[in-house]
Amino acid sequence: MTYPTLVFAGEREGRPELVVNFGVFSGREATEAEIYRLAQRLLEELDSVEIVSERRYECDAEVEATVHQIHVVLPGSADGREGELMPIVADWAHDTIGERSNLTP
Fold this sequence. Notes:
Number of helices: 3
Number of strands: 4
Low-confidence stretches: none
Shape: globular
Mean pLDDT: 91
Order of helices and strands: EEHHEEH
């Protein structure tokens, strides 16, 4: 059995990106405020960043699934810095997921 990865490096339209499997680990989508918080943290290291919040539906004859991912598309100036930036994104994901899971009704 393969377990999902929280954050991994990828590529989007020829640009490096970091992908967060947010919904798999949180059971929800990231809020706008949480995404802006991630952007502010990354802007401490980068001049600019593009963040895409994506809801994807994957279906076949036997299974239907909704996947929520956050794509952090890095500027060209950050090429090769994925390994340096991945812990920042992973820390954000862990903190954000943990904040909401500790709330009680």
